[in-house]
Specification:
5-stranded mixed β-sheet, cell wall biogenesis/degradation, 10% helix, acyltransferase, Immunoglobulin-like, 4-stranded antiparallel β-sheet, Ig-like domain-containing protein, 416 residues, cell shape
């Protein structure tokens, strides 16, 4: 057979490339193409050809991951509860990534189980919010499978919020707890407390304590250190505080602890020592509750300052025994009506005997215009959150929930 030459001209004068001689080359070429096609599509080729044909990797295993990802609630679900429903799982494999985000792109924290079979959120979800879920798992061969889903949480019919003290941006004394009063009684206290996170600088352990079902206070074991910065995150939106009643509040509150001032009243000596950073800066003569109206013992936190106020015995169960319309320099110590205040009607009682109906009185003038009297000095040198400790009175210790006075509980009892 001759070697294949270049171009040739057929009987009709058309140029072409001869193959295996004359016009018989065309069927031969088609036949060769068919053979190649069969070899490429059939199962009788090489290992590499066989792997491609079956969609397998060089090791002979399927390229598709065997892992199966499941997401609850189902894709497109509406009115989803804010807790207990969102779950991600994996079978025939382990989860490697779960990302849950709200419409603003904020991620929801969660944790993959030790065996990689499930993921659960570490917090509740917000109400009336659309969430997207992206989950990835891998099988024993390392091949990945992924699922994406979205759902929308419920819109609650009944809600609650927390009214708190101190105010955002305030500077307060070393005795000030962070106190929250809820507008509805809470029957799921652990869920609500978990949604309030407190951080401090410098760091200190802060614990919460419930007074009844509508008040939650937070404090450290001892008075705050002067200069401490406190940040509180109220993440109540979507928390089910009681069946069918959900929080609707998301807020960050920051406050600073000012200088340390603790004033110690000795009811038997009729004196008060004002201490700054543990040092006495002034001793003031006082009068406390007379027999039968004795002042509470214990630690009391200043919760309100009033330049002038009216004090009426009827409001605290003392009938018409007194009604003074212009009490100057008044600072509240208890919810029940104990104040430390200016007194312009006490005569020579200050430093000598106890004459009040349970309050702590300091010498003052009517109208409170004299800045040099003891009451005016103390008022101007005090701030909300400062502490007044009363000792050697004939009454019992003030109740921890009567005002912001949880310091009268031991740390062990506080944490119960």
């Amino acid at each position: 057979m001759r070697p294949i030459s270049g171009a040739s001209v057929d009987a009709r004068g058309r140029r072409g490339r001869s193959a295996l001689g004359g016009r018989k080359g065309l069927p031969a070429l088609v036949s060769a193409a068919l053979v190649l096609t069969v070899a490429a599509c059939g199962g009788g080729g090489s290992d590499s050809g066989s792997g491609k044909s079956q969609g397998k990797d060089p090791g002979g295993q399927s390229k598709q991951s065997q892992a199966v990802v499941t997401i609850a609630p189902k894709d497109g679900a509406k009115s989803v509860d804010t807790s207990g429903v969102l779950k991600v799982g994996a079978s025939k494999g382990t989860l490697t990534q779960v990302v849950v985000k709200d419409a603003k792109g904020t991620a929801i924290s969660g944790k993959i189980s030790a065996d990689g079979s499930s993921w659960t959120p570490s917090t509740h979800l917000a109400a009336s919010t659309r969430y997207t879920v992206h989950a990835v798992a891998k099988d024993s061969a390392g091949r990945q499978a992924a699922e994406d889903s979205s759902f929308t949480t419920l819109t609650p019919q009944n809600t609650f919020v927390g009214n708190f003290t101190p105010e955002d941006g305030s500077t307060v004394g070393v005795g000030m707890p962070f106190s929250v009063n809820f507008t509805r009684g809470i029957t799921h206290p652990a869920d609500v407390e978990k949604a309030i996170r407190i951080t401090t600088e410098p760091a200190v352990d802060v614990e919460g304590h419930w007074f009844g079902n509508d008040r939650l206070d937070f404090r450290p074991e001892h008075y705050w250190k002067a200069g401490t910065k406190v940040t509180v995150k109220l993440d109540l939106d979507g928390v089910e505080g009681r069946p069918g009643v959900y929080g609707k509040q998301t807020k960050t509150v920051s406050f600073t602890i000012g200088r340390s001032q603790v004033s110690v009243v000795d009811a038997a000596k009729h004196t008060m020592k004002v201490m700054r950073d543990g040092k006495v800066i002034k001793t003031i003569p006082v009068t406390t509750g007379k027999p039968g109206y004795d002042t509470w013992n214990g630690k009391m936190v200043m919760s309100e300052k009033l330049t002038v106020t009216r004090m009426n015995g009827e409001t605290v169960g003392y009938g018409g025994e007194y009604d003074i319309k212009d009490v100057p320099h008044a600072i509240r110590l208890t919810t029940s009506g104990t104040f430390i205040h200016g007194n312009y009607w006490g005569g020579d009682a200050f430093g000598n005997y106890n004459a009040s109906h349970g309050c702590i009185g300091l010498r003052d003038v009517r109208g409170g215009y004299d800045g040099g009297v003891p009451a005016a000095w103390f008022f101007s040198h005090s701030m909300v959150g400062d502490v007044v400790e009363v000792k050697r009175s004939h009454d019992r210790t003030v109740a921890p929930d009567n005002g912001l006075n949880g310091w009268n509980m031991s740390w062990a009892d506080w944490k119960k």
